[in-house]
Amino acid sequence: KAGVTQTPRYLIKTRGQQVTLSCSPISGHRSVSWYQQTPGQGLQFLFEYFSETQRNKGNFPGRFSGRQFSNSRSEMNVSTLELGDSALYLCASRTGGLYTDTQYFGPGTRLTVL
Amino acid sequence: KQEVTQIPAALSVPEGENLVLNCSFTDSAIYNLQWFRQDPGKGLTSLLLIQSSQREQTSGRLNASLDKSSGRSTLYIAASQPGDSATYLCAVRALNYGGSQGNLIFGKGTKLSVKP
User: Fold this and answer.
1) Cβ-count burial of B16 within 10 angstroms (0-12 exposed, 13-18 middle, 19+ buried)?
2) Interface of chain A against chain B, CB under 8 Å?
3) Are B89 and B106 in contact, with CB atoms under 8 Å apart?
4) Segment A100-112, tens digit of pLDDT
């Protein structure tokens, strides 16, 4: 089975721009979560989608948004980029059913904001 | 608010040693606890998942325990090898109000270095 894939792997943007990151979950997984990882704050939860609906949301400003498509693929968008948005953005998938199960992570997208 | 703490932040050991990594959490209302490893610049690899009703899980040289009442988990690595060098992260899945599954809350990790 193919793992979680994320595109692009690296991205350089300037302040004020917007960016869209993409995530393809493991086949059969209906839940996709997004995390931001920085050296200072560690891993912080952004949001989780399950069957195209946002199921959980972290404490990030409204500039961070996401969506999930009917094939479970997910996109994350950050508008009006700030320097502090530079981070590794990780996507993770799991089956997401009634019983909790292992979360599988993608390799991440490294975003640099100049 | 759930907080996850991992001690120590860094650990260096000689090859072959058995070691224990510690994780503590402030709220015992959790769905499960997972241990991950992360290699530099890479994503996370799941090592072990312990459901809230379980006490421990084992996989190869790894053994993870969970004591929900005291808010503690340990990851035991037997006969460490240089390939075990990585950052080890502990995460708890929160239990939302109403009993639904919450998100994963991570500790800051323990950076392990195993010297040949």
Assistant:
1) exposed
2) 4, 33, 35, 42-45, 48, 55-56, 58, 88, 90, 92, 100-108, 110
3) yes
4) 678 899 999 999 9
SS3 of chain B: helix, strand, coil, percent, to 5: 5, 60, 35
Q: Are B89 and B105 in contact (CB under 8 A)?
A: no
Tens digit of each residue's pLDDT (9 = 90 or more) over A14-49: 999 999 999 999 999 999 999 999 998 999 999 999
Contacts of B49 in chain A (CB under 8 A): 100-102
The verdict on a CB contact (< 8 Å) between B103 and A90 is no
CB B64 within 8 A of CB B74: yes
Q: Does B89 touch chain A if contact means CB atoms closer than 8 Å?
A: yes
Asked if residues B90 and B73 have their Cβ atoms less than 8 Å apart, the reply is yes
User: Are A100 and B32 within 8 A, CB to CB?
Assistant: yes
Among the partner residues B34, B89, B103, nearest to A48 by beta-carbon distance: B103
> B92 in contact with A at a CB cutoff of 8 Å?
no
Tokens at A104, concatenated: 């599988």
Report, as an integer, the average pLDDT of A87-107.
85
**Is the alpha carbon torsion for B20, B62, B42, A69 positive or negative?**
negative
